[in-house]
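Dear colleague,

Following up on Tuesday's group meeting, I ran the structure prediction for the two-component complex that the binding team flagged. I've pasted the input sequences exactly as they went in, so you can double-check that nothing got truncated or mislabelled along the way. The structure tokens for the whole assembly follow below. Feel free to forward this to whoever is handling the docking comparison.

Inputs:
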Amino acid sequence: MRWVDMKDSLKNFWNDFRREKSGMVGLFLLVLLIFTAVAAPLITSPDIPQRWKHYWLENPQNAPPTWSNYLSSVRKAPNVVYTYKDLHIKESKDASGNTVYSFEIPYKYDYQVPVKDIVIFNLASNASSPNDAPYISIVLKRPVQDGYSSVVPLMNETVSSNATIQLSTNPQVRMNVLRWLKQNNVHVDPVLEFQLRATMDTMTILFSQIQPDIQDMITNPKPLHGTYTLLVNVTAKPGISVDFSNIKVVFMGRTCGLMGTDDRGRDIWAGLVWGSRVSLTIGLAVAVLSVLIGILYGVTSAYLGGWKDEFMQRFNEFMASIPTLPILILLGVYFGGHIMLWQLVLLLVAFGWVGIAKVARSMALQIKEQTYIEAAKALGAGTGRIVFKHIVPQLLPYAFAQIALGVPGAILSEASLSFLGLGDPSKVTWGQMLNEAQRAGAAVNGYWWEVIPPGLAITLVGLTFVLLGVALDKVLNPRLRRI
Amino acid sequence: MMGFGKYLLYRLFNAALILFFVVLLTSTLFVKLADVTLQSQIQETVQAEWNAYAQHHPGGHVNQSEFIKKRTQYWIEYYGLNKPYRTRVWETTIKTLKFDFGQTRQTIFGTRDAAKIIKVALPRTILLFTTAQIIVILIGILLGVKCAQKPGSTLDRAISILAMVTASLPMWWFGMVMILIFAFKLGWFPVNSFPDPNLTGLAHVKDVLWRMVLPVVTIVTVLFGGWAWTTRNIMIGTMQEDFIMAARAKGVPERKVIYGHALRAAAPPIVTMTIFSLLSSFGGAIITEAVFNWPGMGRLYWIALQQNETTLIVGLTYISTLLYLIGMILADLTYALLDPRVKVGASASM
């Protein structure tokens, strides 16, 4: 085929294809998917695949997406993370020569359910002995409520390097809060107080209005809206320096991020974006390879004829009768419970070419009998020339449609295996996200944000290629055009 | 040209060959895996034996290393680990073919015999799957014919869109969504499809049916669209044939033309397509079972994978391959029975 002809036929093809509405939708989705897959490090962050294996401590577990607040009558506090940049730490010297680092975090609270916890991560110092360890004092300033003091001292303690400070469950914080309540004439039953020291939901108390009896504050908390300020002072002895560069102060929310978090606190949105890579890679690699092998096998079989054709067809039938999923599961178990991505591609190709080879053979058999093949033979064309110049190009339209139609099957197979726990553990895949959701009982507990998005993503990719395939089939194989 | 009996024989032979190869493959892989587990198991057993011996015969004159050596030898011979790898693969193959899969490590469904466990699970899978499939076929044919009558109608378009969407979604995921909506949110159906073991008689039947609703609805919803679409395509082809025109010209009522003439002529490809779609949806349906905790083959697969029960995996692979092959032969048989023109294999007619 000459270049001019090619350009012309491509133009014709595009003109036909443009008229297929479903094909255009598919094309748009495909562009969107490829963009997502390529731009995944920019949309989220480049270290997601490494971090995916661990717990994400700075996120709450099983938290719904932040926008779910708009769907519900109860507004829950979202997750907020403050890093070094946000804190504006001030440094000063006190009378005895100690260095005092201080920062304050203003926090606007207008929700019904407060944060789960306030946690400070990675407060590092170079203190070598407990005596030198820096001293931290934390105070929460509440919005003014008439007749009550608005400053709650939470903590005065030395901290070891890299300690994680969880305010909600800290015994000293609980004691301080109870003391503050009593100073404000809140009735605390002594027996209850003993219990509360171990089990109190500190954040709910801190973020709601003071009532005369603590019992009411627990059973029927009324949120106190307004701007809170968390004041933190870290005092270090001379010669001791405190490193704030990795510090994170997290207001551990009840909702988190664009798509919520799973049972390890991982951001589902990040998983969704990164999963598109594996899905597209597997789908396209398997479909392209299967179709190539299938077409070559079918055409060779048809061209050779005789006992070779017979033998190749028997082998084809043999492959077609092997049930794919049980064998894949079997191999997955043999490989130690996990099938690597490239192994999976090879295995899916090993089963995927069969049907295509059969159709390609019957198409090639028809083409083989055409007079122009005879003419080419008479002109002295060799086998290779006839197969690759005259037969295979005729099959290309069929091949393109089949590539598109073969993608969803490959994606579904990968997802199924990953769902059974046999997936590649080094990759972020939608099937594995669903596997973890199933193991954590997400569906049973109503964690819809862990169940619905990954499956929708799989469906969307599958649908993209089905739409493309059907449109290609209609345009490229006009004989098959139906009303 | 092959006669039908000969063709059937050929297919049976082909199936037997595949079954044999699959079992040989599983044996080859799993004898190797079993080696490792058995070795450590023997070590543990012998150590325990020595501990018991030393307790009962304090100050005995038997040397510890000699004792351990002797007992290890005994167990190695007991499990046949001293035989060459090839022999053991062969023996395992024969055993598996005879449905002797060995013991699982943990008790499942009240027994540790892998064959018995599968025997308990298989009828449940067949019950769930056949029920769903019958409904799918009925709805699919009815809707498919309706679409073929008026191609391009709203129903026709809706069905083709539905077919495209359901072809690209994982059935087991749809099951999870169903649980989320109908079991968690609305609370209409039980979350867990495992039947209540305390019920017997009619109450038990009612309980099982009640728990089957969600899985069956899941399978039906995902499959009927594609099925209707296939029927529609085959029917549209048939409706354009001359004999339909002739029947209409004769004044045969339209109903009869469609169900008596067209559907009958289109039956063979429809039936083969059904069986093939049935076979290809089997995998998805099996995983769906695991989602609903329906105690069938799929649940077994899930358990076997979670607890690493290799004997059970071997058994499950064998049984599902067997089922698959039976399905393939049934597809061939029904095609030949329904279509008198086909007395030979598809390959010979090309």
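The longest strand of chain A covers residues 99-109.

Cheers,
M.
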